Amino acid sequence: MEANGSYFNEGGGQDGPFDRLREECGVFGVFGYEDAASLTYYGLHTLQHRGEESAGICTSDGHTFRYHRGMGLVKEVFDKDRLASLEGDRAIGHVRYSTSGDSRLANAQPLVFKTRDGDLAVATNGNIVNAPMLRRELEQKGSIFQTTSDTEVIAHLIARSESDFVTAAKDALRQLVGGFAFLILTNDKLLVASDTYGLRPIVMGRLGDAWVFSSESCALDTIGADFVRAVEPGEMLVFDAMGYRSERFAPVAKRALCSMEFIYFSRPDSQLYDVNLHTARKRMGMRLAEEFPVEADLVSGVPDSSISAAIGYAEKAGIPYEMGMIKNKYSGRTFIQPSQELREQGVKMKLSAVRSVVEGKRVVLIDDSIVRGTTSRRIVKMLRDAGAKEVHLRIASPPFKNPCFYGIDTPTSDDLIASTHTVEQICEMTGADSLAFLSQPGMIEAIGGAFTKEASGGLCLACFDKEYPTPIGVSANMTSCGC
């Protein structure tokens, strides 16, 4: 089945007036479930927040691959008839964001290949830092790339190997530098792998006799699967007719799970290792109230990702939590290019201040992060226009100063406001009465979990302190997204 896509969404970059960070993608896999495509559909629908630009599913019945990819939301790409045509008891699926210029159907996943040993499909979440170097080496050896996606690199590495499939996959994974979670499907096997640092999350669940895999545990809850465990750094799971086995393609280098998963990306009902996201974010808000208290009449959070932290701040500070801002749930994607005048007003299409709540009040506004600062400036102005007497901005993470190379669409350092301005300067630029960021030790302690004895808390903190867990060379993939 061809990936039919005459659609082209210009996409990429940041959405209108908003400067929110973008997680690049989400993956979902099934092994041993009669209607694997439908199960994958529901899993991807739950992971939609991780990628709204394209979606795809590839299935196998043990003999034949069937797949479909398209631009748009999961519900736009798939319907009942399309899902019914994707027969098979095993599947891998993907939802994707892209960086500017790469929003096209050819890069939608899963990527599907014909090799001398049969069909091969690959879906990944993350970014391969050394992909440019590997790509050049492969091209010099005769490989012809069909996409601009880094994910294609591993397919070529596997296809060129003279070893058996599992050994070839392990050898290929060992050559990759970066943060990634891979689902690799053949007609008789499904491989699940996590990078040696565990930068990009992937979890494993059980539904009856079937096995399921997801970028977040919330998707397991949606389909009624039981959470089993997270896939360990450097681990590769092999599923086939004999059952499954766990192998290692590399030892654990150093646990460095992306801290932005806790701060912003993952849904609050997800679980990362032994930490619930809502609980962690609430503790971040409580710690922020301890570190930077302020006299105020109410606490409000920027919906939706900052609500948990705002509740924690309000609880600790003894200040009422109020819904000072409302989010428009239906403003996320548009194929209509607005005029410049409307773009300037675009923040009002997504957020509205509740005048009756904030008018005449001293407001503590909680947000999860500041990227370029444009969104914060517009929100502060919105609250003042609604009559807020004071606006005190509190950020439930440290200053975001450095670009990410592991699967987050971030600007360069020059465009990250905290990289080039002091807290006082940012406060003045946003128009807030005061501004404070959660300290890095406070964030690590608030997240907690099984790895708090490590100085980093088992987290990647490079976006805050520039301590990248992997080597970052001049030839590193700067696009942020390997998928």
UniProtKB/TrEMBL annotation:
Residue ranges occupied by any Glutamine amidotransferase type-2 domain in the UniProt entry: 25-242
Cofactor note: Binds 1 [4Fe-4S] cluster per subunit.
Enzyme Commission no: 2.4.2.14
PROSITE patterns: GATASE_TYPE_2
Cofactor: [4Fe-4S] cluster; Mg(2+)
Annotated [4Fe-4S] cluster binding sites: C258, C404, C460, C463
Annotated residues for binding of Mg(2+): S305, D367, D368
Molecular-function GO terms, alphabetical: 4 iron, 4 sulfur cluster binding; amidophosphoribosyltransferase activity; magnesium ion binding
GO terms under biological process: 'de novo' IMP biosynthetic process; purine nucleobase biosynthetic process
Signal peptide: none
SUPFAM superfamilies, A to Z: N-terminal nucleophile aminohydrolases (Ntn hydrolases) (SSF56235), PRTase-like (SSF53271)
InterPro entries assigned to the protein according to its UniProt record, in alphabetical order: GATase_2_dom, Ntn_hydrolases_N, PRTase-like, PRTase_dom, PurF, PurF_N
CDD domains in UniProt: GPATase_N, PRTases_typeI
Protein keywords: 4Fe-4S, Glutamine amidotransferase, Glycosyltransferase, Iron, Iron-sulfur, Magnesium, Metal-binding, Purine biosynthesis, Transferase
Pathway the protein contributes to: Purine metabolism; IMP biosynthesis via de novo pathway; N(1)-(5-phospho-D-ribosyl)glycinamide from 5-phospho-alpha-D-ribose 1-diphosphate: step 1/2
Reaction(s) the record says it catalyses: 5-phospho-beta-D-ribosylamine + L-glutamate + diphosphate = 5-phospho-alpha-D-ribose 1-diphosphate + L-glutamine + H2O
Active-site residues, Swiss-Prot/TrEMBL: C25
Pfam families: GATase_7 (PF13537), Pribosyltran (PF00156)
NCBIfam families on file: purF
Function: Catalyzes the formation of phosphoribosylamine from phosphoribosylpyrophosphate (PRPP) and glutamine.
Family membership noted in the UniProt record: In the C-terminal section; belongs to the purine/pyrimidine phosphoribosyltransferase family.
Protein name, entry field: Amidophosphoribosyltransferase
Lineage, opening ranks: Bacteria, Bacillati, Bacillota, Bacilli, Bacillales
